[in-house]
Amino acid sequence: MAQALNQALRDAMAADERVHVMGEDVGTLGGVFRITDGLAREFGDTRCTDTPLAEAGILGAAVGMAMYGLRPVVEMQFDAFAYPAFEQLVSHVARMRNRTRGAVPLPVTIRVPYGGGIGGVEHHSDSSEAYYLHTPGLHVVTPATVADAYGLLRAAIASDDPVVFLEPKRLYWSKAEWSAREPEPVPPIGRALVRRAGRSATLVSYGPSVPVCLEAAEAARDEGWDLGVVDLRGLVPFDEETVADAVRATGRAVVVHESSGFGGAGAEIAARITERCFHHLQAPVLRVAGFDIPYPPPMLERHHLPGVDRVLDAVARLQWEEG
Amino acid sequence: MTVLETPAWRPRTDAAPLMPDPEPFRLLGTPEAAGLDPALLRRAYGELVRGRRYNRQATALTRQGRLAVYPSSTGQEACQVAAALALGPRDWLFPSYRDTLAVVARGVDPVEALTLLRGDWHCGYDPKLTRTAPLSTPLSTQLPHAVGLAHAARISGDDVVALAMTGDGGTSEGDFHEALNFAAVWHAPVVFLVQNNGFAISVPLGKQSAAPSLAHKAVGYGMPGRLVDGNDVAAVHRVLTEAVERARGGAGPTLVEAVTYRMDAHTNADDATRYRDEEEVAAWRGHDPVDLLERELAGRGLLDAELRRRAADAAEAFAADLRERMSAPVEPDPAELFAHVYAEPTPQLRRQEAQLRAELAAEREQEHH
Ligand SMILES: Cc1ncc(C[n+]2csc(CCOP(=O)(O)OP(=O)(O)O)c2C)c(N)n1
């Protein structure tokens, strides 16, 4: 996935000279995850810039650059280090279009490596999506596959609105049949995808939890369950149609994500499913999420991250026997 | 209580006393060094030798998978040791993630000091008992805490000083500026120590700041800035001690920039050859903090074979003990994850804890069969 993201940035920069990449260590080093590897060499350090170490400054500067007509792509080094930039994000980035009655759009892409499962020390594993999705004015996008990493990042950069682009860290090293030379057409932002059709129940997920759901669906076949998996590919905009269709087909749904459950994205999704599919539901919509604790240390994170077993337990709890 | 009465603000007509000297302050190898207390130099020597060994040992522990990550302070030991030695037992230290050696030199058990870097979720030591804040991973965010603590102590009539450490990159963060301004306006008894080791991960100082020096940043806030050779343990100790005394005496904060160099990569996970050349590293190797002090001690006839051996033996014993204790497997209780989220766990957390306990019991059950 890292290579696909790198290629997406390279292609976007080559296609449009207004695209500028900036952040901490994105130049010479190529970013701590090497997502910007080689860009400074290829496009010069004016277009791929090592900034001072100041997240609010980076995002604030990106606002001005976008106002001037550029299309900045900023890298936040890690999920938890984007927090110093929240003031800029919430107070300015998200509402600039609104408060200028459309006169000043902000085509800024904010790339945030997020989530756990890589054995990181504290402040390196937060799943911060709920903070973003509660802020109107932001798109929130997250890929689960290598192909989507490329396509969705291209779409994010092409968007005339600010996009928080969440990169699941533990999928950076996932490989797949993906040809850098023939990338797929850019998918629109906000279109969910049925990764697997099912008849027994529908798992709804995004980002790093999608592979977990696919694995659970595979394992569920032993139990005689045919699980569908919907990959949201982002949270804002939310593709209610695709989700509602998939859930109506099965009458049962489990929403899966790794960030804390309380007040999390799953609550919103479950509520929407209930609103749209109430008469089709055979059971309450369940959520499988991380615990409501600060992110645990590497040695214990396996207990926190929802794995296949917890997903299957939830499926079992969907009042399985008919009637 | 009158400490907080603010004097009427008048523009300073002479900023010169605040201004750092353009050249970093040095003691070792200068005539002035003759006046240095031999006992202090010997003590610093023991700490530096042990500190160097500590850095090597901790780095080795990452290779064995005993530590999740280690940001080495090799080359910066003089700053680390001097910071600890400049503080009194009742003072507070606010370290960044790179400053475990300062924490250890202050007397905190090294295994405890490494807890966060081991990948645990708690800092390992009791900040109140050790008067040492948890290592801060987000950069410079601990600086306002130091200001607040020092301010609170001062208005309570307690003559405690706080010393807060950050890196050259950390001076670009908003928290750094807000902390300096608060400290100056409140006359808070704080010493800010910036270890300028040339790089913030891969980004050189020239891309971080356009100021004549980082110490110059102090002047605009109304506090003195001091520039010191960060590899000269005696000089750093002198400058920090003066700043601590100044703060304790009610004269307010000081910003100290120690010019030093990070000899190792940013952490064990980083590849420094991508962004800096060997020549530069080699040049700094010729200005090593341990060598500088050894030369001074030898020149004054203070470095005999006995002192060398004692320091080396002590460092070796320290490393062996650290190695052994770090090799003991850590088995944190997963249920403890829920114990310290709130003073009183919420019903929700109690349910989740019960869920995890049930899962673990089921896991054990399966292992038995
Ligand atoms: C708010 C924040 N942003 C980014 C990071 C990631 N990060 C960790 S260390 C580091 C470089 C710090 O450089 P400097 O302040 O010079 O200290 P040094 O590592 O040289 O001791 C960065 C960017 C962080 N820890 N906190």
Q: Can you tell me about this structure?
A:
The complex is a heterodimer of chains A (323) and B (369). Chain A is an alpha/beta fold. Chain A is 34% helix and 18% strand. Chain A has helices at 2-15, 39-43, 55-68, 86-91, 96-99, 129-133, 146-158, 209-220, 240-250, 265-277, 301-304, 308-316, and strands at residues 19-23, 48-50, 71-75, 109-114, 139-141, 163-168, 193-196, 201-205, 227-231, 234-236, 253-260, 286-290. Chain A has a 7-stranded mixed β-sheet with strand order 2-1-3-4-6-5-10, with helices on both faces. In chain A, strands 7-9-8-11-12 form a 5-stranded mixed β-sheet, sandwiched between helices. The mean pLDDT of chain A is 94. Chain B is α/β, with parallel strands linked by helices and 369 residues long. Chain B has 14 helices and 7 strands. In chain B, the strands form 2 sheets. Chain B has a 5-stranded parallel β-sheet with strand order 1-2-3-7-6, with helices on both faces. In chain B, strand 4 and strand 5 form a beta hairpin. In chain B, helix 1 (38-63) packs across helix 2. The relative contact order of chain B is 0.15. At the A-B interface, helix 3 of A face helix 5 and helix 14 of B. The complex binds thiamine diphosphate (TPP). Thiamine diphosphate sits between chains B (98, 137-139, 166-170, 197, 199-201, 262, 266) and A (24, 53, 55, 77, 81, 84).
Features:
heterodimer; A: 323 residues; seven-stranded mixed β-sheet; five-stranded mixed β-sheet; 34% helix; 18% strand; B: alpha/beta; 14 helices; binds thiamine diphosphate
